[in-house]
Amino acid sequence: MRRPPRDATPAARLLAHLRRAAPALLAYAAVRVTGLLLLTLWAHRQHHGLWPILATEWDAAWYLGIADHGYTHHLGTAYDANNLAFFPLYPLLVKTVAVLTPGTRATTGLMIAVAGSFLAAWGIHSVGSHLHGRRVGVLLTVLWAALPVGLVEWMGYTESLFTAFAAWALYAVLTGRWLWAGSLAALSGLTRPTGIAVAAAVTVTALLSLRRGFTARALAAAALAPAGWLAYVGWVGLRLGRWDGYFAVQRLWHNEWDGGVETVRRLREVLADDSTPELFLVMVTVTLLASMALYVLSAWDRQPLPLLVFTGVLLLIVLGSGGVYFPRARFLLPGFPLLLPPALYLARASRRFRTLALTAAVLGSAYCSAYMVLVWPSAP
């Protein structure tokens, strides 16, 4: 497909960009619908309602509670009970959009998540195709859709929205759109705690670019990128009347950073100490180990600096946390650049091998995702 001429309108350029991404978006939808069909059949056999699973349980309930009642004013002493641990952009969007649309806020939240997933898939394709061509862009998108916890992308969670901000911020950096990069990084910092990883990628790359010549836009992006994360953390401190308010909240959620001590303990427990580990915990463990290996391969392949900084900081946060173990595969879901090495490998492989590998990944994702919400007794 030909690129639009340089004098094309912004709308024409956007439409052309969307057309180039159409195969990736269709493939993404096919993967997610496959997982949803299996989940529907499995849930029906268990006489379990599908809607609560997707829209109202676990973290979704916390975000809906914030949209309905706002944030608490006190730290308290109860563990796993303070809603200030949840960043504000998603519940704010739910509250705002629900005023303009029919249905419940749960419906609105789910629709925002699904829409965010397609924006994320578009951004992921854009990064992959910009670096290595359209085939790799499509494969990268499909691999992201087929992650073992891929169902979360279509639940009332923040991962889809956050991944969209992260992917487009990284694409903006790669294409030299500094103000877009800084703004999107700031929005990611209002969406999830790991928004600081996006901010680090933008800020570090922008500051290093100044060595080649000063530009006000790069400097502005470096300053703007962490603003969202810092604003929320600062606001929580003011609300609770203590400078470490946000970190005190995280301690009540057992999310202190211990440099990886708890992660190593749980890895050893699942791999060596427990003779019959729970299947979901095995999947989380494999995901963590695979992510570390893929980061080494990404560095070996000399991925662009912003991608390495983003995934490096994301891994540092997730692996270095002393918090709960089982959601860590979900926490790593936005780290799509880690999938570039397998996407490049599949792009060079035979069509038969590529088809078999992708089919196995899609079916495995569908099974693991359904197991995650129908058998595993805790949050995804």
TrEMBL record:
Q: What GO cellular-component annotations does this UniProt entry give?
A: membrane
What membrane topology does the UniProt entry give?
Multi-pass membrane protein
Q: Its domain of life?
A: Bacteria
Q: Where does it live in the cell?
A: Endoplasmic reticulum membrane
Pathway noted in the entry: Glycolipid biosynthesis; glycosylphosphatidylinositol-anchor biosynthesis
Location, primary (coarse class)? endoplasmic reticulum
- Listed GO MF terms: alpha-1,6-mannosyltransferase activity; GPI mannosyltransferase activity
Report the InterPro entries cross-referenced here. Answer: PIG-V/Gpi18 (IPR007315)
GO BP term (any one): GPI anchor biosynthetic process
**Residue intervals passing through the bilayer:** 21-43, 106-124, 136-155, 218-238, 279-298, 305-325, 331-349, 356-376
Q: Which UniProt keywords apply?
A: Endoplasmic reticulum, Glycosyltransferase, GPI-anchor biosynthesis, Membrane, Transferase, Transmembrane, Transmembrane helix
Q: What is this protein called?
A: Glycosyltransferase RgtA/B/C/D-like domain-containing protein
* Species in which this protein is naturally found: Streptomyces sp. R35
